Amino acid sequence: MKKFSFSLQFLLDKKEKEEDLLKRKIAELIKREEKEKRELEEMEQKMAFCQKKLQEKMCQRVKIPLVILYYSYFEKLKDQIERKREAIQGILRERKEIDKALMQVSREKKLLEKMKDKKWKEFVKLRNKLEQKLIDESAVARFYQKIKNGLFQVI
């Protein structure tokens, strides 16, 4: 009897590769998200620190150009913070799409694995049936051989 072969194995292999690729993409996005969040936190801390510094300077005599410089820096920092938040939201949207794709690929892979398992069980059942048939035929042949040789007598 020939060995077991699943006709859709190429598709199952493809789904496994897709699943691995999507998992790697998600891991990469998680790293990017963490990095962006750290950078955002640093920017927000910088903003708070500079605002505190400006308040301290306002209590003293401060030159107007310095105040203008601080406010222009605040505006630039606010823009950077906003862009960073948008980048994080973009990463989250991309991750959600990849999660959805991963769920679909995982479902398809699981279905193919169930089909393969079912085909394997059918193969084993058929193989066992054929083996039993060979054993039975061999036993019958030995029995007839013994009768032919006179070891058994048929009544």
What does this 3D model show about the protein?
With 155 residues, the protein is mainly α. Helix content is 88%, strand content 0%. The chain contains two helices and no strands. The longest helix is centred in the last third of the chain and has 85 residues, at 64-148. The protein starts with 8 loop residues before the first helix and ends in a 7-residue tail after the last helix.
Tag the structure with descriptive keywords:
rod-shaped, transport, cell projection, 155 residues, Flagellar FliJ protein, mainly alpha, membrane, single chain
Short structural description:
The chain has helices at 9-59, 64-148.
What is the global morphology? rod-shaped
Number of strands: 0
Element-level helix/strand string: HH
Question: What portion of residues is helical?
Answer: over 70%
**What's the pLDDT, averaged over the residues?**
93
> N- to C-terminal separation?
38 Å
Helix and strand composition category:
mainly alpha
Instruction: Please tell me how large the radius of gyration is.
Output: 37 Å
How does the major sheet shape up?
A: none
Q: Which regions have little confidence, pLDDT < 50, spanning 5+ residues?
A: none
Count up the helices. 2
* Strand proportion: under 5%
